[in-house]
Design the sequence.
């Protein structure tokens, strides 16, 4: 088993801190508080992102998706994706993948599948799509549609790692009718703040990079966007009574999201 490196912050543990979790270390807390000092709405952004994942997964399950591949899973926070989709379709199958050993330690929480369905966990990095796909084939039927989730992940992948290529390689083996769900932080509305946030992550060893609306939209080239297309998270199928800006007390959360279908 991989050892947990507590000498530098990890994005999954920082995200856990933003969500109010306890599975983080002083180095993660210090980096997370630096981010908060630059962008005080970061915890609201994490909650907004989580709520989007719930809505997107629910919508896809309601529309008949029965297989899900979630990369960049993060430390389990209930309800997890499989709890959402198996609540609608108990026979749904879910494969989780993450590269932080602390997520592996909590994988048991991700494996409490409904008896009719199945869940599995893969210790892997999005930068190794071949490993993820090979492992996912043990649980998922690649001749049938799969919902691929890369939620709040690609802004932790720098251009030097060719995220567009990684997404294409993950989509290529998926059957027609598969879906892609993405969310991504943007600096479109306050570039100076996000330069400082990105610098915190990069100093900690994470190749963070925010992207513009145009850059985010490129991930969906060749796919059919599900209405309402590429929008800010709070505007994607909002729950009744949800604040317009997400959890930010009316402030617009700078997080682009979309779901698209492979034709």
Sequence:
């Amino acid at each position: 088993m991989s050892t947990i490196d507590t000498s530098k912050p990890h994005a999954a543990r920082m995200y856990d801190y933003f969500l109010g979790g306890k599975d983080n270390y002083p180095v993660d807390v210090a980096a997370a508080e630096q981010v908060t000092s630059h962008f005080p709405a970061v915890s609201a952004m994490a909650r907004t992102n989580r709520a989007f994942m719930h809505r997107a997964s629910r919508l896809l399950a309601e529309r008949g998706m029965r297989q899900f591949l979630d990369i960049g899973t993060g430390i389990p926070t209930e309800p997890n994706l499989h709890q959402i989709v198996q609540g609608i379709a108990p026979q749904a199958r879910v494969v989780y993948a993450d590269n932080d050993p602390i997520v592996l330690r909590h994988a048991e929480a991700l494996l409490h599948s409904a008896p009719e369905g199945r869940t599995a966990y893969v210790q892997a990095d999005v930068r190794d799509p071949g490993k993820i796909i090979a492992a996912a084939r043990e649980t998922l039927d690649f001749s049938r549609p799969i919902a691929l989730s890369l939620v709040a992940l690609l802004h932790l992948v720098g251009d030097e790692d060719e995220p567009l290529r990684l997404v294409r390689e993950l989509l290529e083996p998926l059957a027609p009718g598969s879906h892609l769900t993405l969310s991504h932080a943007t600096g479109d509305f306050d570039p100076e703040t996000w330069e400082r946030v990105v610098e915190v992550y990069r100093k900690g060893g994470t190749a963070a990079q925010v992207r513009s609306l145009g850059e985010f939209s490129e991930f969906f080239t060749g796919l059919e966007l599900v209405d309402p297309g590429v929008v800010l998270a709070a505007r994607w199928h909002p729950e009744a009574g949800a604040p317009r800006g997400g959890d930010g007390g009316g402030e617009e959360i700078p997080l682009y999201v979309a779901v698209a279908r492979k034709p």
Summary: Residues 140 and 197 are 37 Å apart (CA to CA). The first strand starts at residue 67 and ends at 71. Residues 42-62 form the longest helix (21 residues). Confidence is low (pLDDT under 50) at residues 246-250.
